[in-house]
Amino acid sequence: MSQIQSDPSSLRPAFMTPQKLLPDEKCSLGCPILDCCMGGGIPCNSITEIVAESGSGKTQFCLQLSLRAQLPPFLGGLSASSLYLYTEFPFPTRRLHQLSSALQSQYPQIFVNNYDPCDGVFLQSVNTADQLLDIMPQVESFLENSKTRLPVRVIVIDSMAALFRAEFDNTASDLIRRSSLFFKISGKLKEFAKRFNLVVLVTNQVMDVVDSGEGANEIRIGNLNGMYSSGRRISPALGLSWANCVNSRLFLSKDEYESGSAGGGEKGFWESTDKTKRWLLLLVFPSSTRPALPDGCTSIPVRKEENKAADRESGGSSLN
Amino acid sequence: MARGVSVIVKRRTFCLLSKLRGFHHQQSREERKEYHQPAGYTALALLASSFHSELASDLEISDGEALENLKVASSHGSLMDRSNAILQREQQQQSLNPKDWIAVDQQNAWDLLHEERSLMTRISTSCADLDDILGGGISCKQVTEIGGVPGIGKTQLGIQLAVNVQMPSYCGGLGGKAIYIDTEGSFMVERAQEIAEAYVEDISEYNRFLHKDLQACQGEIQGKDVLQNIYFFRICSYTEQIALINYLEEFISDHKDVKIVIIDSVAFHFRQGFEDMALRTRILGEMALKLVKLAKMCNLAVVLLNQVTTRYMEGSFQLSFSLGDNWSRCCTNRIILYWNGNERYAYIDKSPYLRSAAAPYSVTSRGIRNSASHCKRSKLV
Lengths: 320, 381
Fold this sequence. Notes:
The complex is a heterodimer.
Chain A: E1 26-27, H1 32-37, E2 42-43, E3 46-52, H2 58-68, E4 81-86, H3 93-106, E5 121-125, H4 129-134, H5 136-144, E6 152-158, H6 160-167, H7 172-195, E7 199-204, E8 206-208, E9 227-229, E10 232-236, H8 239-243, E11 248-256, H9 269-273, E12 276-284, E13 297-299
Parallel strand pairs in A: 3-7, 3-11, 4-5, 4-6, 6-7
Antiparallel strand pairs in A: 1-2, 8-10, 9-10, 11-12, 12-13
Helix pairs in contact in A: 2-3
Chain B: H1 2-20, H2 29-35, H3 40-49, H4 52-59, H5 63-75, H6 77-94, H7 98-104, H8 109-119, E1 122-123, H9 128-133, E2 138-139, E3 143-148, H10 154-164, E4 177-182, H11 189-209, H12 214-220, H13 223-228, E5 230-234, H14 238-254, E6 258-264, H15 277-297, E7 301-306, E8 308-313, E9 316-321, H16 324-328, E10 333-340, E11 343-350, E12 358-364, E13 367-370, H17 372-380
Parallel strand pairs in B: 3-7, 3-10, 4-5, 4-6, 6-7
Antiparallel strand pairs in B: 1-2, 8-9, 10-11, 11-12, 12-13
């Protein structure tokens, strides 16, 4: 079938048959239930978006992915470093270090000679949407001639929404400029994702659905009829045009768990997090391979060491 | 009188063919008679040449009667001539010679009607309800645009069509190949594999239903062969997209068995920072013309998946297809996918010959199928 592309002088587009395409590699999150839910982890070669309200564990997700990418493929990683573009200050260095030392102690045979997994996470701060577009050539050259120990194959942007939510007005011209930026950025990211076989993970914030009348934020995207988090109806920020730019969309939801001592109410912050249950829902996921997936959900309590899911109830949410 | 006979033969042929086409369409056979789709003359030729015993058993008539029917069919000279003429014309069209094309273009409406009824073939979507409102499926020779919000199942429908176009002729399919142009990176190999494997299972189910030689048929198709028959292009910029569409004609002349071209999605690269909207309109118009021409000349279906966008109209935000008004004139058919409660629906928004109608469908692990709740309802009835 591939004889047609045998003539290298012609600049014809080369076709592939899916049989020849390898299934996209996946980067594991280190949680068997989440990995199973997503068919092995976050897929390479496409943009995956995490939508969640603050405190749901988006950043934990990103940090963990950027660390675990360094594991060899037989442990679910990619043997790759990661590039972490952060927009919300300050960068949670301490948390990264915590997760890193947890990972190090979990796999001492991989991280020999006191190698710190933090060394494989490259940080870059981004302040505005235009700056993000401007640094794309730098990102490209960084990906091309990376002198890093492991090749860079993960790009995390945490968070995309923060870049766009402040700067743009609700006027027509600003909205057009904004969506044009979306498409430019995602076009670039998709190109990189394909050329370097990258995992691209971006995070997005949510907004409350205020009126139940017909508004732009009423458009249903994905498998859920209504997205609820902390008991409020929400919808992803950045609107429909950004939704067109990503390949997969995950939704992290959280709820305060009403325990028996709920009357006591005012407990310390750390105690109350134990009463929070979080779960993951796949909103848009083209590679979903499981029959239960469209509404499949699973919980991911965020522990201090690492994300690990406790799955006690079938197909549903459970407590930490 | 001769015409009367031919009509009877046609009806019976069609009846036979719809029996061959399988079981899930049974209740809608009455409606389907009106469409006159893939049966027609080519099937008549087939009928005349071969299975008279099958005809007898299927129509529940005696062998002698069947033979007589077949004699009528084969001795009906003018009918056969006409079918041959149309077949030849079809072959000429496929030869892609512009001179032939101009010559062939001189048809009258009657010829066109016959051609349409006899040779306009359709690609099933695997969802019987959707097929019904589409008159059997996505039609060849036409450009069909399908749009909807992210996650509604556009890519899934695209993959399903790329697989279904390969349905062998004994199942009522085209036995063709597919070109899949991915501009967004949403084509997932494992998903395609899953749909292909479900499709292979379905085909062997058909075969078992028809009491065909299972061994022989199963040897023919396998999941990996199905994937082998999809030519996959990944496009990273709009220049690449234009170049590829210009190259398609040449590619298809090398691969004549390509019966469907799917572009997923046509809009993505044209939405990134085109400052000059007039230029964009021109480029898109040219691209659309090329695709329309390709569909006509090569007798294949072109399916364009499109994104939707919000547009501010008359004081409120409304959903509309991206790429603007000019683009919307380029496509022959347009199907909108949308959520209705918890069900996915497809709505025919624009079509020169189909009634606008809506049908529910669902995306399952096996691909596009009838909506589950709808099935339950029909079972209850």
